[in-house]
Amino acid sequence: MSMTLLYIEDDREIGSIVSADLREREYNVRWLQSGEGAIEEAADCQLAILDVMLPGLDGFTVGQRLKRAYPALPILMLSARTSIDDKLQGLQFADDYLTKPFHPDELAARVEVLLRRAGASSTVPLALKHLLVYEGDNRVIRAGSGEEILLTGKQFQIFSYLLRHLGQIMTKEQIYEAVWGEPYMEGDKTLMVHIRHLREKIEEDPASPEIIETVRGIGYRVRA
Amino acid sequence: MKRFRRLRLPKSSLLSRYLLIVVAALFFVPVIFPLSIMAYGFFTSMTVPKDPADYALYTKVTELEQMWHEEALLLQGRSAEEIDERLQELSRKYTRASMFWVDHEGKTRLLLEPVAPVPGASAASRPVIPERWTAVDAISFMKSTIGNDPLGIVAFIGDREEAGEGFMVMQVSRLVISSPTVEILNLWFILVLLVFFVGFAIVSWLFFIGIRKRLLRLQRAMTVTGPAGMPRPIPYGKPDEIGRLEEAFNTMVGELAESRRREAEEEELRKRLVADLSHDLRTPLTVIRSHVHHMTKENLTMQGRESLQLMDERISDLGTLIDNLLSYNLLHSGRITLELKRKDVLRLLRESAAAWYPLWEKEGFAVEIDLDAEPLYWMVDEVWFRRVLDNLYQNIIRHARSGRYVGISAGIRQERRVIMIADHGKGIGSRSEAKGAGLGLSIVDLLLKHMELEWNAESSDEGTVIIISHARQKI
């Protein structure tokens, strides 16, 4: 089932090229040239892409209204403005922010990350090397044998946090604070121990891990 | 004309008001004193019992003395009996006085006590009159009469010492001569003067208290600022010097508010201009980039693909340049406020490196990150600190790509904890051909200064290390 994206862009040229590109990537795109009617159109959309400078209501206002109407709808702001205030104002309700001129591949990558984070694609298992991950059901299956890998609560939380940020490097602090919900203390080995146990369960060769990669000095990453 | 105007004292002037007080005080003396005496006379005539009428005989001492000397002259060559008789006559006229006379042998002849003694006069204070007078008695008597009570008037009979007929003395109580009225009058004047000076002091004091109060009110108005950081105008008072000062202050506040408003307007205009400019420059770039991307899907030669790749990179660079240019404009105008908070900068470095890592990886950079140290807390604005790091990393990608190396570490230099960002490029000196690098570093410089951070670059042809430290934080 393909995703439906609401795309609001007043510039016809950019709008048509970006819509075409997203359609090529197998998304249904609903392109509006102003914020009018956005709330109704967004009803069955999985994500909204908003330009900041729009005729009539600006992108921030439209975004805030959309967020109020559909709190779970991920919003990606596109802006041609520079001011840092814009970024802060945008990020108060938007989930991500991209500055023009953006590369269509980057837009597509961000859309994919946002959709995954929103859990919109959880019904489809994620294939990672020899694993199939059903995020919605908290299940990890070895693709070859169909055998389920049993993870502890913390192990699954760590794994699913990394999966939600697929391809991104997450620092120790970010992972610890997201999973344990308390500030990370420098030198704390808890996370390292949990990741070692997680690797022993999911990696084919825990000594040279292929799924959870260590980025020295920074943190961990699960590559797409 | 101006000088003339300055000399004019309008009725409402503080100076003229104070002059009015002083002039009133001066006029007070000749006007109020006679008035007070009249009032006193009026009241005493109503309340105090009058002195007996014959007191009037004694009030003028010189006349008394003259009369006594004339009598003494008339008695020259008279017999003792005649003198006695005359003195008795005089005693009947001057009933309040005592009289006696001494003959040429120094014998006291007649001693006449006052027919009507003065009430309150003490007989004890009168000097002793000897039966026979010696020179010593005469001298001590004379001494006792000077300035004492009773007053003694002495005259030689024949009014000449050479006559050798003795002398005659009249003694009058001073109570009769100087009526108590005079003393009470003196007291009255002292009281009036006292009241006058106290009154003058109080009026002057109230006058200056009034001025002080208004000056303090003005001072408060100048120092206490309202919610917008502006002093509030004060209500107009009297139209004097301070009133004019208040008026001038209100005018100044008004002008200040107006200038602030204009400044805010200009700033708003500048921000809008920057935003519009950014929008107008970026929109066509986005279109071009989208078209370039579209073209990459066509069947192209290797060279064509490379050209498109280069175009795409340049568009990206141009986007960054526009961002830097406009950010610099806003930053330089001092209009961006940094929200400084205590943050672990090593954590910010890790997070920022995490975001850049994929690009370094793609470019084939060797990345060395050594940030395993105690957290390093500096007061920074998180968003702008990331911007500093972004600009530094951007510079490495653009201008030190040949070294294919990024090193991020924490260390100690000159007793200070520092963070270091190193590359193996050809050094900053060789970057002159890479225009645009200066702007990114200018922003870095401006931002770090705002965060009280110091930075310097150690550059050689083997690479550059950017060292950032806190200006005041030593180990």
The CATH homologous superfamily of the largest domain in chain B is termed Histidine kinase-like ATPase, C-terminal domain
- Low-confidence segments of chain B, given as residue ranges, are 1-5
State the end-to-end distance of chain B.
Answer: 70 Å
> Whole-number radius of gyration of chain B?
56 Å
| Structural class by SSE content of chain B | alpha+beta
Query: Most extensive chain contact?
Result: A-B, 36 and 48 residues
Helical residue percent of chain A? 25-40%
Following the backbone from N to C, one meets helices and strands of chain A in this order, namely EHEHEHEHEHEEEEHEHHEE
The CATH class label of the largest domain in chain B is Alpha Beta
Level-1 CATH class name of the largest domain in chain A: Alpha Beta
How does this model look, in words?
Helix content of chain A is 38%, strand content 21%. Chain A is built from eight helices and twelve strands. In chain A, the strands form three sheets. In chain A, strands 2-1-3-4-5 form a five-stranded parallel β-sheet, sandwiched between helices. A four-stranded antiparallel β-sheet of chain A has the order 6-7-8-9, with no helix packed on it. In chain A, helix 6 (153-164) packs across helix 7. Chain B is α+β, with helices and mostly antiparallel strands. Chain B folds into three domains: 10-49 and 181-221; 54-178; 338-470, Histidine kinase-like ATPase, C-terminal domain (Heat Shock Protein 90, 2-Layer Sandwich). Helix content of chain B is 56%, strand content 15%. Chain B is built from twelve helices and eleven strands. Chain B has helices spanning 2-7, 14-47, 61-74, 80-93, 135-145, 174-177, 180-223, 241-296, 302-332, 345-362, 382-399, 437-450, and strands spanning 97-102, 108-112, 151-156, 167-172, 341-344, 366-370, 377-380, 405-413, 416-423, 453-460, 463-470. Chain B has a five-stranded mixed β-sheet. A four-stranded antiparallel β-sheet of chain B has the order 2-1-4-3. In chain B, helix 8 (241-296) runs antiparallel to helix 9. The two termini of chain B are 70 Å apart. The A-B interface holds A 11, 13-14, 17-18, 21, 53, 80-84, 86-88, 99-105, 167-174, 186, 215-219 and B 271, 274-275, 278-279, 281-283, 285-291, 293-294, 312, 315-316, 318-319, 322-323, 326-327, 330, 336, 347, 350-351, 353-355, 357-358, 367-372, 374-375, 383-384, 387, 408.
